[in-house]
Each structure stands twice: as C-alpha cells, then as structure tokens.
Amino acid sequence: MTSSPLPGPNPPAEDGGQRSEDLFENAPVGLWEVDATGIIVAINQTLLRRIACTRADVVDRQTLETLVSPESTPTVQEVSERCRQDGRATGVMLKWRGEGDHSYWLGEVTATAVYDAKGQWIGWRGCVQVGPQATSEMERLLHERTLEAIERLASGVAHKFNNLLQVIQGYAELGSITLESSHPVHGNLGRIKEAAQRAAAIVQGLVTFSRRPIVRRRSLDLGMYITKLGSRLQRVVPPGIELHVKPTTQHVRVLADASSLEQAVIHLVMNACEAMPKGGTVALETDLEQDVTAGESGEPSRATYVCLSVSDTGVGIDPDLVGQIFEPFFTTKDTASGLGLAVVWGVVKQHEGRIEVLNRPGHGATFRIYLPVEDLVSPESGATNSP
Asked: Domain 138-209 is in which class?
C-alpha cells in the first residue's frame, strides 16, 4: 500500500490542503512521522505542546528516541523494526519527556509504515494519546502489567517452594513417627510441621494470585449470591459496623467460582471493617456498567459488565501506598501475610474481570470488581437480553 508523508508545516496549496493541515495540527492525539533513518520529518502542535518543544527544535533535527526516556529508547527501535517488517505496531507504551528535565508521562503508541510510490519502506508514522485521562489510563495499564509480571514470578516460586515444603513436611512426619513422643526432639519436629503448614498456606495464596485455571466456574445469579453472602456476613461483622447489601434490581448472571469469589468478597469486607475501629458502614453493592471500546474493525464494541463494589466509611488508604496494595507480601499490618489483596486480584483475573480502587483519605475507600455479564434478565419480563 502506497502512503504519502504526513502534511508538514507548509503543505502544498490545493483544495482541502489548509483543512488537512488544521486537522493534523489540532488533532486530539499526538502525531508524527519519521524517515528511514529515524529523523522526525513531521510532528503536530498537540505533541509539541505536550513535550514542551518547538517545531524548529525537532523537525529534521531529532529522532524520536530523544523525545522519550532512556528506558524507552530500545522500545522506539523495536517499533521501527516492527513497522519495517510487519507494517504496523500497536499497544506499545512509551515514557515521553515532559516540561521539566525529569518530568515524564506515559502514552500508548500506534504506528504504521510509510511507503513510497514504488512500495519501498521509507519510514513510519505514529499517534499517541496526550490528555491527562490517557496518562492516568496508561499508568493503570503499566501497573496491571507489573502485577502480571509479579504473577508469573509468583507462579514459578510457588511451584518450586511447594516441592521443598513437601520434602520438609515428609521428613518431619517421618521423624515424628520414628521418635518416641518423650524424645526431646519430638516437640521440635511438631513445630517444624506447624511452620511448614503455615508456609503451605502462603504458597496456596501465591497460587491463587498467579491465576491458576478455575475448574468450578458455573452460572451464578450475582444478586442472589451476594444477598445470601451478605446474610452470612451480618453474623460476623464486628459490633458497631452496619453492613448494607444492595444488589441491582436486574437478575445478572455471571460465570464464576462461588468459593473463590466468596473468598475475595469476604476479604474486602473484613478489610473494610478493620479500617473502621470506631464503627461505621460497609456497603456491598452490584450495578450494571456499559463499556464501549473500539473493536478490531474500528467499529464501537459494546460490552456489559456488572460492578460488585465494597465500600466503607473508614480512614481510607495512604495515597502513597495505593499503587502497592495488590502486590504480594505488601502489608501495613504486623501480623498479616500481605497476600489478601493479591489473592483478591488473582481471583478477579481468573474471572476475566478487573478491579479498581476509589480512595477517599479520611473518608473511606471503595473496591470495584468488574465481571463480564453472562446473561441479563429483566425482572419484569423474565426475558434474557444479550450483553
């Protein structure tokens, strides 16, 4: 496919030329084009403003590598190679320069190859979201990918550690059987077995965090499910704390493992209770959400999710710690394992969902779990609607 270069600062005078230039310069995304040597030959004002540069500073003078952080330089080279080999590159995150010397922002890049009239590759062009909302979304995606990398590490560690624990438990059990109960070492062997059992529980948490396949997923009416779970939780919440259960009025069905989902909800509710030592309110709610994204064809793709939320009126979360709360072994409690929220994160990923935190320091926090809807039934008609 033959493409012409992106319009530069002085496009040829022709019908629609000024309109094309205006569209290019004022597009809501950053746009640029580089030649086969990597030199930037065109860049729009949207991106220039975001990186605090002028056109004279950049065009025909700099490569894209100079506009990103040092750690993103190899990624730019990978994008260029992918465009040359495959014609395009998508979903690539780069850390761009900001206004200050050490200021950076994250942006997801889509890039396509540029060819001359003979079909020869002469460079590539790209676009990047530059608004504050896009930056926040990129930070969320980066955090998600970081957790996924930790997840893969946790999976390997759990497997190897579990093998060692089996050896330790086996020899401790054998020693307990071999020695008389009056032997002075017998008590030590018992403590070794107890420690190994506690370690095994931690390994199990790592396994859950690392998203082992669920084999017990079945169709659940989520409203009925949390209503019944809420009834059981009413009996265990501490005095002075009110638990409000508010399911959506529509019958929403999801494919879920009831046991692991219950484990996640109970942990979130208990965490909420601990955040309110002087009492307060915990709300367990479900509601429907529409998520509209661009499909592979570029047409809007609409999906329905149910949001299961746990909110409290407690002290909230230290803003400096919000980005770490789902990491395994991270905890602010002296006696906790630090796997609770990591397990919650793993359970949500097992269900092909996502989890978000709305933090209100001094006023509480809300954990929102989004699960894909299997069936949606109108309470009036009983008819099933496709998501």
From this structure: mainly alpha
Residues 6+ apart with CB under 8 A from 312: 272, 273, 275, 276, 280, 281, 282, 283, 364, 365, 366
- Are the beta carbons of 365 and 276 closer than 8 angstroms? no
Q: What is the pLDDT of residue 251?
A: 81
Domain with CATH 3.30.565.10 in the chain: 218-385
CB atoms within 10 A of CB 208: 22
136 pLDDT higher than 60: no
Mean pLDDT of the chain: 77
Q: How far apart are CA 274 and CA 266, in angstroms?
A: 12
Dump pLDDT digits (tens) for 40-54.
999 998 889 888 889
Top CATH class of 218-385 equals: alpha beta
Do residues 96 and 107 make contact, with C-beta atoms less than 8 angstroms apart? yes
Q: How far apart are CA 216 and CA 106, in angstroms?
A: 39
pLDDT of residue 63: 92
> pLDDT tens-digit profile of 170-186?
777 777 777 787 888 87
User: Is pLDDT above 70 for 190?
Assistant: yes
Per-residue confidence (pLDDT) for residue 316, from 0 to 100: 87
Coil, strand or helix at 131? coil
- Given a contact cutoff of 8 angstroms between Cβ atoms, the answer to whether 256 and 308 are in contact is no
Specify the CATH number of the domain 17-130.
3.30.450.20
Pairing of strands 280-294, 241-246: parallel
Listed residue (66, 120, 74, 112) closest to 93, CA to CA? 74
List all residues 6 or more positions away from 115 whose beta carbon is below 8 Å from its beta carbon: 1, 2, 3, 121, 122
Q: Which amino acid is at 70?
A: P
H-state helical runs in the chain:
17-25, 45-51, 55-58, 73-86, 132-178, 186-209, 222-234, 258-274, 340-350
pLDDT, mean of residues 247-251? 83
Please, which residues bridge with residue 95 across strands? 106
The segment(s) of the chain belonging to CATH 3.30.450.20 are: 17-130
Domain with CATH 1.10.287 in the chain: 138-209
pLDDT in tens, 220-244: 899 899 999 998 888 878 888 999 9
